[in-house]
Amino acid sequence: GQNIDQPTEMTATEGAIVQINCTYQTSGFNGLFWYQQHAGEAPTFLSYNVLDGLEEKGRFSSFLSRSKGYSYLLLKELQMKDSASYLCAPSDSNYQLIWGAGTKLIIKP
Amino acid sequence: IAGITQAPTSQILAAGRRMTLRCTQDMRHNAMYWYRQDLGLGLRLIHYSNTAGTTGKGEVPDGYSVSRANTDDFPLTLASAVPSQTSVYFCASSKGQATDTQYFGPGTRLTVL
Question: What stretches in chain A show pLDDT beneath 50?
Fold first, then answer.
């Protein structure tokens, strides 16, 4: 079956760095998306990885290892507004996104 | 209109009633999607449409129907609502290429009593 595993909740301090891990098992693979979702709002796109390695975009970076079925999202210089859920979503052989339940990130001052 | 809109924002519905959730996008995207999001679970795909005139079933299609008469609109209908359909419903769209980013509407919070 298809499965996505992310930590349910993480806590970090303002200004620090946090890494959110995601492991996945899918029928086929066509890249992996990360989305951010603030409470009560819609998910918004953060990153897309299709090849192994690190993609950097400002304070956010995303890493992919296809052979390990593993990705992580790295957030640097954390700000209070980064308090949100972060959703990992690999794309399967039918190009449908398989969504994890998300990691709720709590930022403390 | 800018992006994707959904209506209503929220709704309380008696079980057995028929309900249509509306979704409109102005980005001329080919593909559109309906998801439901429940606490502790990931987004689950209900139905999708790769282009106007075509629709497909997602992971949890039972009890729901869709139509795609034109590019912009993708309504979701609950023919006879049941309490297990209480959820937050998100509509999304993408350009249509297989790995294109999906853009989400603001969601509809539906409660079925």
Answer: none
To which residue do tokens 């400002």 refer? A58
DSSP state of B66: E
Which chain A residue shows the shortest CA-CA distance from B47?
A96
**Alpha carbon of B18: minimum distance to chain A alpha carbons (Å):** 25
Residues B39-95: tens digit of each pLDDT: 888 899 999 999 999 999 999 999 999 999 999 999 999 999 999 999 999 999 999
Which among B76, B66, B90 is positioned nearest to B3, based on CA atoms? Answer: B90
A vs B: CB pairs below 8 A: 47
Q: What angle do CA B71, B76, B78 make, to 5 degrees?
A: 160
* A89 SS3 class: strand
Q: Which of B41, B48, B104 sits opposite A101 (nearest CB)?
A: B41
Cβ contact B42–A87 (<8 Å) = yes
Question: Of B23, B107, B52, B58, which is closest to residue A44 (Cα–Cα)?
Answer: B107
How many CA within 13 A on the CB side of residue B46?
26
Measured CA angle at B46 (ends B4, B86), to 5 deg = 90
